[in-house]
Amino acid sequence: MGLLSKAADKAPETSNAASALSKLDDIGKALRDRIRRLPAKKNSPYMALSFMKAYGSFQAGVCLNLSKGQYISYASVGLGIEKTRFPQDTLYDPSQKGKKYFNLGSWDSLGLKPFNSPLTVWAFPLDNGTPWGAILLLGTDESSGFNPEPISLIVESVLDIINPQIDRVIIREKQDGDREEGLSESGVSVETSLIQYHKMNSVFGGILVDLPETIKDDEKDDFIQKVSRMTSLFGMVTALPAGRCVVLLPRNIDRALIAHRLKNSLKTGILESFDAGSPGEAIEILKPYF
User: Fold this and answer.
1) Sign of the CA dihedral running 258, 262, 263, 269
2) Is residue 213 classed as helix, strand or coil in its secondary structure?
3) What is the tens place of the pLDDT at every residue in 160-182?
4) Can you tell me whether residue 72 is helix, strand or coil?
5) Residue 37: Cβ within 10 Å count
6) Which residues 6+ apart lie within 8 Å of 264 measured at CB?
7) DSSP string, 151-175
8) What Rg do the C-alpha atoms of the chain give, in angstroms?
9) pTM for this model (two decimals)
10) Mean pLDDT score, 72-93
11) CA distance 33 to 232
12) How far is CA 22 from the centre of its chain?
């Protein structure tokens, strides 16, 4: 990870990655690194929440995915094993768009399991979708001295762990009639993914990563997770229909350095490294590899 870290360091200090690295204390950095070592398993979001609970002094936490107009829990601590559900409008607030976290009000007002003392709910969106495809809620006691900022920095660095569907939920699936543009294996339009990334980065770069020649069909998802983990501090990974993936990066990141490390670490090939000023420009580069 050393070379990748150096590439990230070339970004301005105002970038999210640099901010996360500079504001976390040593314990927070150690926790972030511990979570990033978790394997890609179904219980990894739960393990990540458990680690953060000890660090962040919150009483309960729950991760939720959006599905058919409802946010449904897929990992929780302090709430037992029962599924938690909320109507989309209960949690999604367009006025909070773009914020790393916000105060959602009281725990009891959401109808969640009561605690001995009143809890405040802090919400941490786990993607940039409209509405959010996933969100983390933390219940905090006012007397605990909870600070949402370091938690948000850790969450920002471990999105591929705490939200294992990150490449699938940040973009809502398009209507069935629109699915002819080239889809990732998750059923999400690659073009739609590029459009969403372009909203956050007017000019961006990309690295098209090939599958290793020896990879088996049931290992493709694990391979994409590995790419995502190696680049999650500064990039976003989107799967292509053929099982390859593209790493989308801000323009100021050193793509050559990252491509070199990905190639050597994953024993694979780099098919393209490109700049793009629009989703259409990027899709034309990627189409031959669908």
Assistant:
1) negative
2) coil
3) 788 766 444 333 333 333 333 44
4) strand
5) 8
6) none
7) HHHHHHH-HHHHSTTHHHHSSPPPP
8) 19
9) 0.54
10) 86
11) 12
12) 20
Q: Which amino acid is it at 109?
A: S
Q: Which helix (DSSP H) or strand (DSSP E) does residue 32 occupy?
A: helix 26-36
Are the C-beta atoms of 98 and 199 separated by less than 8 Å? no
Reply yes or no: is the peptide bond before residue 131 cis, omega within 30 of 0. Answer: yes
Q: What is the pLDDT of residues 261-278, one digit of tens each?
A: 899 888 899 999 999 988
Burial of 202-232, coded b for 16+ CB within 10 Å and e otherwise, reads eebbbbbbbbeeebeeeebeebbbbbbbbbb
Question: Which pLDDT does position 186 carry in this prediction?
Answer: 38
Return the structure tokens found at 150: 């370091």
Alpha-carbon span 284 to 290, nearest angstrom: 11
* Structure tokens given for 259: 């491509």
3-class DSSP state for residue 76? strand
On whether the CB atoms of residues 197 and 204 are closer than 8 A, the answer is yes
Q: Which amino acid is at 219?
A: E
DSSP labels, 93-123: -GGGTT-S-EEEEETGGGTPPP-SS-EEEEE
Task: Tell the residue number behind the tokens 């920002």, with chain if given.
Answer: 156
For residue 137, the one-letter residue type is L
Residue in 1, 3, 8 with CA at minimum distance from that of residue 233: 8
Give the H/E segment covering residue 75: strand 70-77
Q: Could you give the CA distance from residue 24 to residue 138 in angstroms, rounded to a whole number?
A: 19
Sheet holding 236-239, edge to edge: 236-239, 245-250, 204-209, 270-276
CA dist 280 and 118 (Å) reads 50
Q: Name residue 162's amino acid.
A: I
181, 190 contact by CB (below 8 A): yes
Contacts with 95 (C-beta within 8 Å, 6 or more apart), sequence order? none
Helix (H) or strand (E) holding 86, with range, is strand 85-87
